[in-house]
């Protein structure tokens, strides 16, 4: 199995921007999540098993993302049409043993490209094949303030994880997800476009 589809850009934000982003996040409540993580979500509420999605309490992406989205769209010609409909903040602290187990992100609602801004400390996003997790692991280093894109084979065929031992200091991941073609131009485009309009208000608060 080839390993392609991962790119990392260093220094996507400055140290001053990082400090301001984290201060803004910490001014909002964090919600306890699985495996010692805490989270803040800005996005539609989805039932992945029943394939149902609704805006529910979604009030848009947060204002802090407004300058970052055009910046990431300008990184490559390929990212020009990346329009996020969800932003999720995950807070990892070593004292809570925070981690995320190997998994795929959903394929029905979330599109091919996952984009993550890594804040505060270095960690590794580790990739392994679901059928042979012990055979090989590819650890992608993520320095603070770097931006990661996962797409293609890395997104579709490889599980990704953050291991507990790779969280040595507080670390925050800010992840943006796009919609699948079904919601952009296919059968469910009316639903998809309503969610995109909401996302683009940049008036969101964590749900
Ligand atoms: O913390 C990370 O960088 C990965 C997060 C992740 O895998 C997810 O949100 O599905």
What would you note in describing this structure?
By secondary structure, this protein is an alpha+beta fold. The protein has a single domain (6-199), classed as Jelly Rolls. It is 18% helix and 32% strand. It is built from five helices and 13 strands. The strands form three sheets. It has a seven-stranded antiparallel β-sheet with strand order 1-11-8-13-6-3-2. A hairpin with an 8-residue loop joins strand 9 and strand 10 (137-142). It is globular. It binds 2-oxoglutaric acid. The site of 2-oxoglutaric acid has 10 residues, from strand 6, strand 12 and strand 13. Residues 88, 90, 100, 105, 116, 125, 160, 162, 173, 175 line the site of 2-oxoglutaric acid (AKG).
What topology emerges from the helices and strands here?
Elements: E1 6-9, H1 15-26, E2 31-32, E3 38-42, E4 45-47, E5 52-54, H2 68-73, E6 86-92, E7 100-103, E8 110-119, E9 123-128, E10 137-142, E11 147-150, H3 152-156, E12 159-162, E13 171-179, H4 181-184, H5 189-199
Antiparallel strand pairs: 1-11, 2-3, 3-6, 4-5, 6-13, 7-12, 8-11, 8-13, 9-10, 9-12
2-oxoglutaric acid (AKG) binds at residues 88, 90, 100, 105, 116, 125, 160, 162, 173, 175.
